[in-house]
Write the structure tokens for this entry.
Amino acid sequence: MGYKSYKTPDPVYFEPGDAASAYTLRFEKIPLRINSDALEASAEVARIIADGIRTKAAAGKMCILGLATGSSPVSVYEELVRMHRHEGLSFRNVVTFNLDEYYPMHPESLQSYHRFMHEYLFSHIDILPENIHLPDGQAPRERIQEYCMEYDRQIAGCGGIDIQLLGIGRTGHIGFNEPGSARNSPTRMITLDHITRLDAASDFYGEEYVPKRALTMGIGTILKARKILLMAWGEGKAHVIRRTVEGPVTDQVPATFLQEHGDSVIFLDHASAAELTRFKTPWLAGSCRWDDRLIRKAVVWLCKQVDKPILRLTDKDYNDNGMGDLLTDLGPSNKINIKVFNDLQHTISGWPGGKPNADDTTRPERAHPYPKRVLVFSPHPDDDVISMGGTLARLVEQGHEVHTAYMTSGSIAVFDDDVVRYADFVEEYQEAFRIQHPET
Ligand code: F6R
């Protein structure tokens, strides 16, 4: 269930000395910690929690944690368990309140957050059972409101939450506070958004089995926490992160309420940060260190912005759209236009594996070695043919040895009939292209 990511190089877009605060102040309304690797970022979150627990323990006090479930915090819990086992981190002075639970939900059900928390954290640490609080997915329907008010009272009775851990849903929910949740909403029963139910469908083996309701701490309850740490990993979160960090505060993206909290930090990896202005269009955020890649990215963006082909872009287009810097450094516009046009032109070739015995100085691929062994990575077992079927056919026709690696794994649920369908497809594909198994 944990989200694993690979390191990606740090995108360096800004001139040295260009104050990070310049773009932060202009666009970003919540402090961010962006790490190339979600595992490293999770270790940092775990360290902050561990420090909080130890500081409180040293003062003879209890540390009150607000906890989340889902894939985002899994590595944090793994790290906390490791610290408990190997670094003597004790949870004896810890009280926890979980954010939410599906309703109705039996605590032992596969999908219950109660079970999740015990599997990933509580069963592996020395927390006292009486200090664990999770919304009860079996609380009697007619007493729900009272039950939820009591949950808030219990939190307040402990002195409030010291550190609140959050994930974020694609709807912008925190806890299960879906769009429309009020800033001062208390713990309550809510109806889950369609997108949230869709995202949970694989855990429940079908959307129709995802409960329609849940109990969740309110936005008001969450915002009372003294420190808030929100985590978002992977490109699936990139759009909602942009709206949360750069957009206006609105109940349509409940996570934007964190902009009004004095001590909240968002932890991101490069993929979830990719839609932020500083990465997506850094020329709008500060003075850039222009290299060929960034120039090409900016010019292609400008074409879409002004709806013109590259060779038609004018000095005014560059100036009007925050690219005056580039114009000053490398202009005039027609010089930049031609450079990018040529760059793009040279990515197109009828010889995707390189043309043997030909001059390859302006070709996108080397002439030699020939033939080549080609490995195509395809996130799903159809992306390869959909996005580069013609290229695959050419590579095979031109004598290269072509393999496709389908990047699915047991960590995401794939229904049996889908597996069979894809397996059929691979068989047909192999037949169509006369690809033989080594033993045949
Ligand atoms: C879970 C919770 C939710 C999740 C969010 C992201 O307790 O409160 O807000 O944090 O739906 O889920 P993942 O981390 O699975 O992407």
